[in-house]
Specification:
alpha+beta, TATA-Binding Protein, 4 domains, 5-stranded antiparallel β-sheet, 29% strand
């Protein structure tokens, strides 16, 4: 059905407009209506008020609803609360989440893990709620800020009489003019400007306005919140956010997951307080209290062959730092914090000799690293080729050798040895660096099956502890948060919007003369006491005594 929205002033308004965009006349005004006008968005039509909405309009209307936004925020808060019942998986140092929750918290913990609440903040439904809140913020803002901007940027100075008399602050009275109405209006400009109003006149009509910028405060706040939400969602982009607890054995170079960075623990140092340095009440108790945990860390960046597992990456040193508690390594947003250490000494390298057991002749020594092992070694006239490496040696059900983990708990090396007095194709030889593993897996018996007489004549053996490299393991918390600067920017913009909206209020005063009758209307979005005070002060400056309370719509003017 066609709706006529043309005002008597001649202005054609959009469907849904409450107050004429030009003169301010209430378009659906009952003659006996005296209550104050609803001035939100100055009565301008919004897209969400469109008649006969299409599917897209219905989606727009859904997200433009403040009620829906409140519901979404409440649901998100409830979901976030569920994520705090038990620790999230991301906070684990060690442990398998699939068994941890049930083992630690029982049946409730198992249900918690099964429902996916153990990773609440990265779950699809939580991210979807954040996206919906962001969408609501954008649409709510656009649905209101554009009509409001259009209304405030095209304000007419001379407003309709019904517009003025239905404001919340109203004064209407005949004035004993000593000159013309235009002169009276011109004299009213000075006291208004003293109170920081911007004044516009049109003959015997006037519009005074101040602090219009405060109306944009909520929308600036929304912009800040949108940036904040986008930054939070950006943490899901690989490489943008990391908070991992990683072990770095001494002397090893280890890649940081999802980055091009590698970190080496050159040396770990732990220093304890002497008994004499402890408080008197703690002396003599034989307690070890650490004074210093320090990891001499070197950070590398991969520059070539970074994603080819068949090739060794080319690394470039970018920085080095002695990481201590509260003194992290910091490089371009990459942070490494000292967290803990494992006092257990682990085998890092050995320098064994290849020798003849019958004659005692030593052909030479070679450096054998547990992790970054070379593929071949020349020891005197003999050549050793590394065929297999097992960092944590074990046998499967078929009796075949396997690696149970990637930690050097029980290292074993299978060499193919070629040289004088050996078969042309070479001889296979198993070598266990640790004596306990030699005995546990019976190294001699294994080699007897592989090479027979060769194992009786030759051996690989470490000559003394001076040729054994041991290391401790330092645990560092690796933290990368590329989204954090955007989070702070969003928070700062949001705070700016809040300050604008809280500490200032948009005030407007309209007045017009019809003959000798003065009609004045005032509006503000909050602090009506201040608005009444401004109007009463203006009238007083124009020699009109009036009680500020009587300016309330429906009050008695005196």
């Amino acid at each position: 059905m066609f709706q006529n929205t043309k005002c008597e002033c001649g202005h054609q308004n959009h469907v849904g407009t409450v107050l004429c965009e030009s003169c301010g006349k209430p378009l659906n005004d009952a003659e006996d209506a005296n209550e104050p006008l609803e001035m939100r968005y100055d009565g301008v039509a919004r897209k969400s008020q469109k008649a006969n909405p299409s599917l897209i309009d219905q989606v727009w209307n859904f997200f433009s609803s403040v009620k829906i936004a409140v519901y979404l925020i409440i649901i998100t808060l409830l979901g976030a609360t569920l994520g705090t019942i038990f620790p999230q998986e991301s906070t684990f140092i060690n442990g398998d989440p699939s068994t941890y929750y049930e083992k630690t918290y029982g049946t409730i913990g198992k249900i918690y893990y099964t429902l996916g609440l153990s990773h609440t903040y990265t779950s699809w439904w939580f991210v979807a709620l954040l996206v919906m809140i962001g969408t609501s913020l954008v649409i709510c803002s656009l649905d209101r800020v554009l009509p409001l901007y259009r209304a405030l940027s095209k304000q007419q100075i001379r407003k309709h009489m019904r517009f003025l008399t239905r404001q919340k602050v109203v004064y209407q009275q005949e004035i004993a003019l000593t000159g013309s109405a235009e002169e009276w209006v011109a004299q009213a400009v000075k006291p208004l400007r003293k109170r920081h109003y911007r004044v516009h006149t049109d003959g015997s009509a006037l519009l005074a306005e101040k602090y219009r910028f405060s109306r944009w405060g909520p929308y600036i706040n929304h912009i800040g919140l949108i940036i904040f939400l986008l930054a939070v969602l950006a943490r899901g982009i690989p490489g943008w956010y990391m908070d991992q607890y990683i072990a770095f054995p001494e002397g090893e170079v280890k890649r940081i997951p999802d980055t091009n960075y590698y970190l080496k623990n050159e040396k770990f140092t732990v220093k304890y307080y002497k008994d004499s340095e402890l408080p008197k009440e703690m002396q003599g108790q034989n307690k070890l209290i650490a004074e210093l945990y320090e990891t001499n860390a070197v950070l590398y960046e991969c520059v070539e062959q970074c994603d080819d597992p068949s090739k060794k990456p080319v690394l470039k040193e970018v920085t080095r730092h002695n990481v201590e508690v509260n003194k992290p390594l910091d490089y371009n947003g990459f942070m490494a914090y000292q967290t803990d250490y494992d006092p257990t000494l682990r085998l890092r390298s050995v320098k064994p000799e290849f020798r003849n057991k019958e004659t005692g002749e030593v052909y030479g020594e070679f450096q054998l690293d547990m992790r970054d092992s070379a593929l071949s070694y020349d020891v005197g006239p003999y050549h050793l080729e590394l065929k297999e490496k097992y960092l944590d040696f074990g046998l499967n059900e078929e009796g075949q050798p396997v690696t149970k983990s990637q930690e050097p708990n029980a290292p074993a090396f299978l060499f193919l040895i070629t040289g004088p007095d050996l078969a042309k194709e070479g001889e296979l030889y198993f070598y266990f660096p640790l004596q306990i593993d030699k005995e546990r897996f019976d190294q001699e018996a294994l080699n007897a099956k592989l090479s027979g007489d060769f194992a009786k004549k030759f051996e690989i053996k470490v000559n003394g502890m001076k040729n054994v490299g041991l290391s401790t393991t330092s645990f560092l918390t690796i933290r990368v948060d590329s989204a954090m600067p955007f989070i702070w920017v969003g928070a700062a913009i949001s705070m700016l919007g809040l300050v604008m909206g809280f500490y200032w209020n948009h005030r407007r005063i309209w007045l017009r003369f019809d003959g000798k009758q003065l009609t004045l209307g005032g509006h503000t979005n909050k602090n009506w006491y201040g608005m009444r005070s401004d109007v009463a002060n203006l009238l007083k400056q124009m020699n009109i005594e009036v009680d500020a309370k009587s300016l309330d719509n429906g009050g008695e003017n005196r």
